[in-house]
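Supplementary Methods, section 5.1.

A reviewer requested that the exact input to the structure prediction be made available. We therefore reproduce it here, unchanged from the version used in the analyses.
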Amino acid sequence: METFYRLIWLFFCYSFLGWLLETAIAAVRERKYVDRSLLFGPVCVVYGAAGVVISVALRDLVGNWLFLFLGSAVYATVAEWLAGHWLLKLTGARWWDYSDRKWNLDGHICFVSSVLWGILGAVAVRWLIPMLGWLGNAIPPTLAHILLWVLLAILALDCLATSLTLAGTLHRMPRVEELSTWLGAVSVRLGSWVLKKTEGRIQKAHPQADFQKRREKSTVFAAGCGFYKLFWLFLIGAFLGDVVETIFCRLTAGVWMSRSSVVWGPFSIVWGLAMALASLLLHRYRDRSDSFLFLAGTLLGGAYEYLCSVFTELVFGVVFWDYSHIPFNLAGRVNLLYCFFWGIAAVVWVRVCYPCLSGLIERISPKWGRPLTWLLTVFFVCNMLVSAAALGRLETRAQGLPPQNAVEEYLDEHYGDQRLNKIYPAAVRTK
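The structure derived from this sequence is encoded token-by-token as follows.
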């Protein structure tokens, strides 16, 4: 929980500092105050999320300025690219535009901004994080925890109001005179006031934003590259990734070894997420050169694998792979050869696999495709939760702690050390 509170503290600090930076830049350019936040409060969530990822993922590279810079540039650029496309899709407006700059991509990211993100990220990890940590420690723990939960509640309400505004809910709300109850009338008035304030604030900063967009229902299941398409690509990638790694271990090490990430079924979550993210980030660039896809796959794949390694070690205290014995590795988490493999996989995926699998997925009948997708989504959520709980209990068992409740007794009975060692034979405890 202390790790959770530290991350939330960093998130709000980075979000507020990002809002200050964006607002200051806009004020200098336009010579007037312009609120650059999508939300009502003084926060830029993109800065907060990217800052937390950079702080967590790159904490071991404080003394390595080159990779600290490169890692910060890659993670922040991906966050900026995702935010730019998401806002454009929701509002029909560009909240920033680099189209007039050299080496830009879709006008959402460019080389110069990536360099600046790399510098800012390196400075933040090296000097800002200790300062923010000192500031957070100066607040009494109980007061700090209460403050963070209050801020999270306010942020959730802010996100809800903004989401409803962007979805055009204001224009579909019932009229007050149509409601028969006093409570319903008050609720509509209050909701209408909040939505009008939110819409007015966003349109003041971005007059071209459109809040009355209507989504047309497609007769094709998983059309485009939305949730349904990405989920099935995740499912296929998770299964194939487990199979490929199992065969690879057999050919190279001479043993059959489980490479599953979860306790139920042969699924590699790392590979599944990789395929879904590769589709989301690269499918629109299928007409670009192979060298572009290879370079993008090498950088993104290496950054993704590094982040996964840090995440599993931080959350579970377990290292699932170690490349320390392979030349040109970085902290044993990634290595140059496997980064090249990610680059090759990106080219093959975009050129061959994605078009084929996308066509097959779109042939699924929407009548049973949608409910099956949600059923499998629940299965995977439960699968990952049980797997996380089993790994957490593995850690406490290693410390000699007896089960404290019925859940831990169940985990000890069904997911003991022997079974988990079969599922995760390459896992090494670090705590």
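Confidence is low (pLDDT under 50) at residues 182-188. These observations are discussed further in the main text.
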